[in-house]
Amino acid sequence: xxxxxxxxxxxxxxxxxxxxxxxxxxxxxxxxxxxxxxxxxxxxxxxxxxxxxxxxxxxxxxxxxxxxxxxxxxxxxxxxxxxxxxxxxxxxxxxxxxxxxxxxxxxxxxxxxxxxxxxxxxxxxxxxxxxxxxxxxxxxxxxxxxxxxxxxxxxxxxxxxxxxxxxxxxxxxxxxxxxxxxxxxxxxxxxxxxxxxxxxxxxxxxxxxxxxxxxxx
Length: 217
Known about the structure:
Blueprint: H1 16-24, H2 27-30, E1 33-34, E2 41-42, H3 50-54, E3 56-61, H4 64-75, H5 81-94, E4 100-103, H6 108-114, H7 118-130, E5 133-134, E6 138-140, H8 151-155, E7 160-162, H9 164-175, E8 181-188, H10 192-205, E9 209-216
Parallel strand pairs: 3-9, 4-5, 4-8, 8-9
Antiparallel strand pairs: 1-2, 6-7
Helix pairs in contact: 4-5, 5-7
């Protein structure tokens, strides 16, 4: 087996050296401070905690080994990376108890080129490992090359909509007040996707949602 990041011969998805580098990119390693309320690693308590303020958790920085894992899986078809990325999500998702997972969908062109929806596959693995449920509530409208837009353009637009065939199931899940909902995505850049998803779901059902992100760019 070859390491998913450096291509060195190894007996696991990542070689020991890359595992250490990946751990060093986590906010748990990078940040010395902890939120006094929830204990989440924060850069500085003065600026508040994303988990407490926005119900948002992320693993680490979009750089080095973490960047290699995500780009290889998302753009180069390294499907084995789904299992490694799912492992990074597990402690983040566990902070929310037993939520209903909602993956941010791949674009149509992305699914065609890869043969799979990258976040849907990671979500499926998480559900198996953590005995959770999921719903593919969201879809992306074909609006051209959204990923090529500038930061400002992304902040002003979104192509996320509800998958009509799953709206009724979502309504039944919302009726149970014991359910919490957690959005999964790979990269946090402008925050526009999180804002759009929160607006969509809360305007339709007025329920709180949390967010788990692998990397902050």
